Each structure stands twice: as structure tokens, then as C-alpha cells.
């Protein structure tokens, strides 16, 4: 498999899809937004974007299956599988905010082979594959050198499952607020993983994610020198239900803080 060729083609597709999203945003009709669950939305643009992506990826690699947020297929017997989020950050998009992204990854049954994330607002294209470095618009990126939690810029994101997550995240936020360099919530897991990979932030925390949210960002972070585990410090990957992503240097210190609260997280 020629990962360089496939990555180049996926980069083109992600940019093209991003341009489609930006064009559609100029005449976006909020009355056509659907609610999948409490405060969790999907728009007609998500669905049109996914259709375009799936059609092109099928041409590129006909033998591959799909895992896509809006329902295009699932991993069955295929050796390879595309993992697609056609619009990560839908709520941002609906409200004309950034970031929002196109996220595309290719995996086999063992690992992520390539990942591409296009952040539309800043026109930033992140990518990596298993044999490469991580890149942003053609320039190599790497995680930050910050090794002190007190000086770290962090993103403790808020998933839609508020009843399950709030008993965990609210006391955690009280522990972190005033004891880190800054706290931000951006609303796009794909962008947030890439921002850690690029050294803009040191930490990203979230749970209840889907594989389409993190697959591409995971390989980009990994190839940029970052680390991702669950809240207990166990290594995980694109099927993770808990994500602590970091530059690796403040990971253990943050895990100590998480130990005080992880039992409050209600997975079921």
C-alpha cells in the first residue's frame, strides 16, 4: 500500500470538502438542522459532505469499508476501513463559529495507517501516516516542550452526555482552574488533537467520543511525539471511550489529578 499516494489524495479530498463546507455556510439554513440526541445535532451539510467523501474514497480504495459518523457503513470483513467525520464541530458550524473540520483516517484491524484533518476556518491541513512525521500545511510539527502542569494550556472538552460527565468534569475543572496556564473549549475533537500535536496546547481531555472524532487526530498526535491514554493511563487508540491526549511531558502529572475524579465518571 502506497501511503504517500493515498495521503496526498486524501489531503486533496479534505481541502475540496472543506471548501464545499465554507461555501455552503454562506447560505446555511438552520431550519434544516436535525437533533440526534439532546443538544447533539446533524445538518444537511454533514450528510452531503459525507456522501462526497465516501464516493471518492471508494474510488481510491474499493476494497475498504467505512466507519462514518452519519451512517455510511461499518467495519465488517474488510481488511481496511476508512474512518470519516465529514464535519467535526457541527455545533460550531451551525452557529458560524470555528473550528470545524473534515477528518479522514484509514485503518486496518491493528492500527491507524494515515490521518488527515482540514480545519476550515484557518485553512489548516494537518496530516501524518504511520511512516511519516506530522505536518501542518507542509511544515513539520511536534508537541510542545512544556513539562509543568502549572504552565500548561489545556482543553477539557464537554461531550453531550452531561448527566454522565458532569459529576466528573465539574470537580476536575475546580481543581484545574487557576492552577494551569489557561483553559479553553474549542468544540472539535479533531482540531483539539491536532492543536496538541502542533504544540499550541499541552492537554486535551474528553470522553464519550466516537472513532470518527479521534482516528485521524490520533495518528497525527502520535507522529508528532504526543501521547494518548485513558483516564487511568492505559494506552488506547481510535476506539477509546476516554481520551487524555498530551505532549507526553505533563501526562503523568495530569493523570494524578484525574485519579481523584475518574470514579465519578458514569460510563453506563
How many DSSP-defined strands? 14
- Gap between N and C termini: 40 Å
User: Which of globular, elongated, flat, extended, rod-shaped describes the shape?
Assistant: globular
Query: Strands of the biggest beta sheet: in what spatial order?
Result: 3-4-5-6-7-8-9
Number of helices: 7
**Unreliable stretches covering 5 or more consecutive residues:** 37-41
Helices and strands, in N-to-C order? HEEHEEHEEEEEEHEHEHEEH
Category from helices, strands and their pairing: alpha+beta
Query: What portion of residues is helical?
Result: 25-40%
Strand composition percent: 15-25%
The Cα radius of gyration reads 18 Å
Largest sheet: 7 strands, mixed
- Mean pLDDT equals 90
Draw up the topology in text:
Layout (H helix, E strand, L loop, with lengths): L2 H23 L8 E4 L2 E3 L1 H17 L4 E4 L12 E8 L1 H5 L6 E7 L4 E8 L4 E6 L4 E3 L2 E3 L11 E4 L5 H15 L5 E2 L5 H9 L5 E5 L3 H13 L3 E3 L12 E5 L4 H9 L9
Parallel strand pairs: 3-4, 10-11, 10-12
Antiparallel strand pairs: 1-2, 4-5, 5-6, 6-7, 7-8, 8-9, 12-14, 13-14
Amino acid at each position: 500500500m502506497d501511503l504517500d499516494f493515498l495521503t496526498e489524495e486524501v489531503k486533496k479530498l479534505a481541502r475540496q470538502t472543506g471548501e464545499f463546507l465554507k461555501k455552503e455556510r454562506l447560505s446555511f439554513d438552520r431550519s434544516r438542522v436535525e437533533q440526534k440526541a439532546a443538544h447533539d445535532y446533524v445538518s444537511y451539510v454533514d450528510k452531503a459532505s459525507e456522501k462526497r467523501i465516501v464516493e471518492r474514497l471508494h474510488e481510491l480504495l474499493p476494497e475498504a469499508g467505512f466507519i462514518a459518523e452519519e451512517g455510511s457503513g461499518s467495519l465488517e470483513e474488510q481488511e481496511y476501513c476508512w474512518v470519516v467525520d465529514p464535519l467535526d464541530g457541527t455545533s460550531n458550524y451551525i452557529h458560524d463559529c470555528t473550528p470545524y473540520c473534515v477528518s479522514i483516517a484509514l485503518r486496518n484491524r491493528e492500527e491507524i495507517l494515515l490521518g488527515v484533518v482540514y480545519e476550515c476556518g484557518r485553512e489548516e491541513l494537518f496530516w501524518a501516516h504511520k511512516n511519516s512525521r506530522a505536518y501542518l500545511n507542509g511544515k513539520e510539527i511536534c508537541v510542545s516542550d512544556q513539562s509543568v502542569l502549572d504552565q500548561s494550556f489545556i482543553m477539557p472538552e464537554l461531550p453531550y452526555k452531561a448527566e454522565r460527565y458532569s459529576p466528573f468534569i465539574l470537580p476536575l475543572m475546580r481543581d484545574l482552574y487557576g492552577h494551569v496556564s489557561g483553559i479553553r473549549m474549542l468544540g472539535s475533537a479533531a482540531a483539539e488533537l491536532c492543536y496538541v500535536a502542533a504544540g499550541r496546547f499541552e492537554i486535551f481531555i474528553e470522553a464519550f467520543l466516537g472513532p470518527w472524532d479521534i482516528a485521524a487526530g490520533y495518528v497525527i498526535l502520535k507522529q508528532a511525539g504526543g501521547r494518548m491514554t485513558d483516564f487511568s493511563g492505559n494506552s488506547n487508540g481510535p476506539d477509546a471511550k476516554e481520551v487524555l491526549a498530551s505532549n507526553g511531558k505533563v501526562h503523568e502529572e495530569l493523570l494524578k489529578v484525574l485519579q481523584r475524579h475518574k470514579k465519578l465518571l458514569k460510563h453506563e
